[in-house]
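Title: [Solved] N-acetylglucosaminyl-phosphatidylinositol biosynthetic protein gpi1 3D structure

Original question kept below for reference.
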Amino acid sequence: MPDHDGLMRIFWPLDLSRNNSPGIIVGWRNSGLDIFVVAILEVSDARNVENALKVGTLFRNSPHPITRIYELCGQSSIHVLGLANSPQEEVELLQIHATTRPYLRMPQISCERASTIQIIMYERPMPTRMQYISLNPISLALEDKAEIAVHAPESIDAEEEKEEMKNRAQTKHLVEKLKLHTVAKHPPSQKELALPRIVSQVNCSWELHEILHKNASLVGNRLRRSLSVSERVVESATSMRDFVIVTIWQIITLYLYPIVRRGFVIGLLCHRVAAEALLIVLEWRANPQYAALKDISATAQQVEIRLQQFCYWPMQYITLRKRKDDWESVTTSHPDYIRFYNSLWLVANDVIIGIALGSYIIDNSVWVAEFIGEILDLYSVAALRRTITWLMDWPAGLKLNNELAAFLGDLFLWVIDHWSSLVTALQPFLPHLIWFIGFSSFAGASMPIAVFSDLLSILTLHIYSFYVASARIFNWQYTILLSLFQLFRGKKHNVLRKRIDSCDYDLDQLLLGTILFTLLFFLLPTVVVFYLTFACSRMAIISLKAILDTLLACLNHFPLFALMLRIKDSRRLPGGIRFELKDTQHLTSSTASDSPAPPPTSHIYLKSVPLTFRAMFHQYFQLGQRIRKHYLSPRVLLCLATGKFVPPIHRKNLYSLQYSMLPARRARVVDMWNALTASAPTKEKKAGFESRHHNGRRFNGLNGRKH
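Solution (posted by the thread starter after getting help):
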């Protein structure tokens, strides 16, 4: 039934021919006054075209069943929508008259039942180039898992997460209450609800246009004659050639290919079993609350990421191979295609950079070992020893407690001396370690970076212990001073009720508290100086490790392939659609003299919005936000000021960016075996004379005549 508003909406391709030739307009009819133009066929009789659409003549030689296109577009058939450049011909009430001329920028369209017309011009995406449009931005990360942060039960991140979830729930509740006070929204119209279906019709338009134009010559009566002698000879020779080709191809596909394929699958499966064993070792936990090896070591986590990718690539490849069994207009596998080749590009670049880096390290292993040994001795031993000695002797004119400074300094220097002897004992093995790091570079530049990150943690273990010890001493002293301050105020902390209550103290208690407070307060600057020194050293090490982790994130997750597509062909990375209203008076300034005056018409461009660069690097912004919340939040700064231990951010949260292109649950060995050994779906034979049978008719290989 036609709509009652009198507005007719017409979707018109921008690449349709603008010549003077008459033709038949075919496409989808979404409703009475809502049509979608697919093609203009240069055929004289509309009834023949309608009949050819019903019996399937115009869909012969299609690579896949046309019903799949109908399913995608939400329609049961394609219809004749009107006539082009035939103003004298009569059409039905809901059909259109269109006039196209080379000098007309827009078609002039009229319909008897339409009081006004809205022409929406769209540019057909080419599915052979994997172009398409989408209402929602393409997702570069897998969506089979929610991004769940991992925190310790009493950690700072856990408290921040609880507070954020509480604020989010409160905001959601306020939004729901606000909806109760808004103006009632009108239910969406059928034209608004048809937008997702129209997007699918736009994506399928190019393939349908090609098939319709290829079979347009089959519409109508054609002269039939028997084949001549020469044509029969050529047909027989062609059939014999095709028979030989088909026979050879069948021998290869039925006997040789299965043997080679089975051998490759068995070899791949053996590697998959070995990878599964290594993954079990890397993910093993002695207790569910304990950390796994991959949560402690950057090297183990890098190995785990590569093994996860190796386990996922065969499944991705099988998914992409299934694209050939369907129309190219089906866009569900396009994100998988981008993720697959992006990971391949990253691994290839990682290996290329790693080979160059590893070759340099191996060729200069002695010099690199000497350089690293000097740096290690300079900054982790000598510089630290000079700093502690400086702190023991009134640093920057600050008068400290000599006895306490000497005690703490001698304690730290004693540890440094033992650490220095340990480093000296390891010096002869340093060239071999450097050679091992260079050899690991052949697995990718990310491996030596991860190994260096672990070595940095191990070789600065004494600085970490100094920070923990000084922070604990400072926190104890701060807590005692705070308790003694409450004593002066006549207050005490009620542990059971978690509040400050009044309390009457005796004179001897106040006197003892005053003595202890004075003693601890005068010792506080000495402890603070040592604590700040080691806290700054610890923050410098964390910053250096953050730089290394950022390099690992770029090597493992950088959207290189997507960035190349965004620059080369942005229509392969859709980020939505937009409608642009054009100047109607400027576009309709010239009209065709032999066509009736069209009704009031508006022209709108339907354009695809490419994915923004911010959306491409959205997860990097999330990672930066997560690091900022952990290290620069007021709660963390308060912990630093009070001497509470600030643990490093959980490796699972720091590396979640690199796992975004991997499934939450990897495929089992059995699943991989079933996927690789599953028989391919039977395809229609496309070679030789067997490919000429369509819809019960046999066509000549020379000119397509049926006989």
